[in-house]
Specification:
Elements: H1 2-10, H2 65-97, E1 99-101, E2 117-124, H3 132-137, E3 149-157, E4 166-170, E5 176-179, E6 183-186, H4 189-207, E7 213-217, H5 219-228, E8 232-236, E9 240-242, E10 247-249, E11 252-256, H6 258-266, H7 274-292, H8 295-298, H9 301-314, E12 315-318, H10 323-332, E13 337-341, E14 344-350, E15 353-358, H11 360-371, H12 378-381
Parallel strand pairs: 1-12, 2-7, 4-13
Antiparallel strand pairs: 2-3, 3-4, 5-6, 7-12, 8-11, 9-10, 14-15
Helix pairs in contact: 2-9, 5-6, 5-9, 6-7, 7-10
Length: 382
């Protein structure tokens, strides 16, 4: 009793009755106490000494790497958008400004479409649009009446995934072939007789290839396009001095402006005359298309205007051709390219003068391979 009274005075909980005492299991063992972790040595604070009389150190500003990274990223995005807008704008303007004619038309017996796509690239000797002073400056000579074709190139672009290289085939302008409605004549006469449409039909019948695209450039347009591209670099293996073409070039690599470029592709002042000229024309045409599709042109804002306007003034294309078709042609010439001339059988005379007669067996092998989108047979290349 005394104990209970003392508990109440000290406000302690009452002692449990004997019946309420919890009996523990004899096998029970309380968990062992884990030793408290020992405190490690305290790190001494870094103390920076300041020279007597020196001004107090300024607090460091927080680094702004993230802000600079965001600024650089935003700048790059803006540059890409501006370039894309410029290229797209120039392409759309060129698409609307291109001069188109119905060149590739259907007719009875026209060759069936093949794999890949085939271009006919034509350089005409037309002086249309040139004044007498411009003709003298470009050394084109006087007007010869209806234009003929100084350059004819077949370019076959293979289908995607075919593994076949792009092929460039020069057609000698004096090739003796049948011209629909006119009998046999030099192939470049077809242009003078019936324009681009008759020339395209003549090429299709002579080769058995269906043409998918057509592009033509005249004297003045060619020179203007080269100047707009900033010139084209060529590597002459020997000096070229041709007063008729208006050029006097040393041997070696050099950049040509429009006037000299025109003389370079027209000159026959070489040991093999027309045969060497066709080689020069193929190389130069590939260089022009390669340059036109290069980042060096499309990353230059000034070129967006000058190249597009020069191309629009220089080119005549088929009504089904587009600016992006020419861009794909230029891009195709970036990679591996096979270049050759139509196999020649003989040089002979005829009622229309000196002509070139094809080696019809090898020519057929060449054109069959192109129609099937296959590599040119080695026997034809040799």
């Amino acid at each position: 009793m005394n104990d209970d009274r003392a508990r109440r005075q000290r406000r302690l909980p009452p002692r449990p009755e004997r019946s309420q005492v919890i009996r523990r299991d004899p096998g029970y063992r309380p968990p062992a106490k884990q030793p408290a972790p020992k405190p490690g040595p305290a790190e001494a604070p870094t103390v920076r000494l300041r020279r007597p009389g020196a001004p107090p150190a300024r607090p460091r500003k927080p680094r702004r790497k993230r802000a600079w990274g965001q600024l650089i990223s935003l700048t790059l995005v803006l540059v890409v958008l501006l370039i894309s807008a410029g290229v797209l704008g120039g392409t759309l303007w060129l698409e609307s400004a291109l001069h188109r004619e119905p060149v590739l038309t259907d007719y009875p017996g026209r060759p069936a479409p093949g794999r890949g796509s085939t271009w006919l690239l034509v350089g005409s000797d037309s002086r249309q649009g040139l004044t007498v002073e411009q003709q003298q400056a470009l050394a084109t000579g006087g007007d010869t009446g209806n234009g003929r074709t100084d350059t004819m190139l077949l370019v076959h672009v293979p289908a995607i995934g075919s593994g076949t290289p792009t092929t460039m085939v020069s057609i000698p302008r004096d090739s003796y072939v049948p011209i629909p409605g006119y009998g046999r004549d030099k192939i470049n006469a077809a242009f003078a007789m019936g324009g681009a449409s008759l020339l395209a039909q003549t090429v299709e019948r002579a080769t058995g290839l269906r043409l998918d695209h057509y592009a033509e450039v005249g004297f003045s347009g060619f020179a203007g396009l080269v100047d707009a591209l900033g010139g084209i670099t060529v590597c002459a293996t020997a000096p070229m001095n041709d007063p008729l073409a208006g050029i006097d070039l040393p041997a070696g690599c050099q950049k040509l402006d429009g006037r000299d470029a025109l003389g370079y592709v027209r000159s026959r002042d070489t040991p093999r005359a027309d045969l060497d000229r066709m080689v020069n024309q193929r190389q130069f045409m590939a260089a022009v298309l390669h340059r036109a599709a290069s980042p060096a042109v499309w990353l230059n804002p000034w070129r967006w205007y000058s190249v597009a306007h020069a191309a629009a003034g220089a080119l005549t294309v088929d009504h089904g051709d587009h600016a992006w078709d020419m861009a794909r042609l230029g891009w195709a010439l970036h990679g591996s390219t096979t270049a050759l001339t139509v196999p020649i059988g003989q040089f002979t005379g005829s009622d229309v003068g000196s002509v070139v007669v094809w080696d019809h067996e090898k020519a057929a092998q060449l054109f069959d391979a192109l129609a099937a989108d296959q590599p040119v047979p080695s026997g034809v290349l040799n």
